[in-house]
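The instructor's notes for this session suggest beginning with a concrete chain rather than abstract definitions. Hand out the sequence below and ask the class to guess, before any prediction is shown, which regions might be ordered.
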Amino acid sequence: MKFPERRIGWLAGLAVVCGLLMGAATPAAAQSGFDRIGGDYLKFDIRSGDPSICAARCERDTHCKAWTFSYPRTTNVLATCWLKNKVPPRNDDSCCVSGVRGAGVIEPHKEPYEFGIDRQGGDYRDFDLPPDPSGASCNAACDADDKCRAWTYVRPGYISPRPRCYLKDKLTRPRRKPCCISGVVR
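After discussion, reveal the predicted structure:
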């Protein structure tokens, strides 16, 4: 069966539109560990503490050019999203994840750290730590204990105002959660 030229043109146009939409859905990377200071026009709390909610809100708001997600701190038990009407430069700051409109959210993957990962279960010891944006102190505690196989560092404001380290005597399945940094030692 032959398609009339009008249908072929319509199908070609549809293919172009689908290609553009699929290209737009491929996100650029947002950066964990960076703040974008300035240009704020809207601030709201995020109960789940998930940076992707902030990024999605920026995508839906035509005034938004960039965003910054701030993890909960001791003075604020909820995470905060700041939408911006301009694209300020990035500043190194472990408090935040930031990006520009059209960007997704990715956490850095630096061995042996698993950013945005919780390894639930297998806990045999837990304790408070001073704030540490990399989770290195929890990793060091696990590394120094022969019984420890894996660890999870919970950022401040999720379980308590202080960060918490969980040492694990067995390996458990990694689960995506913005609260945590985990790692496997042995």
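Then share the key points. The chain has two domains: 26-105, 114-184. Confidence is low (pLDDT under 50) at residues 5-28.
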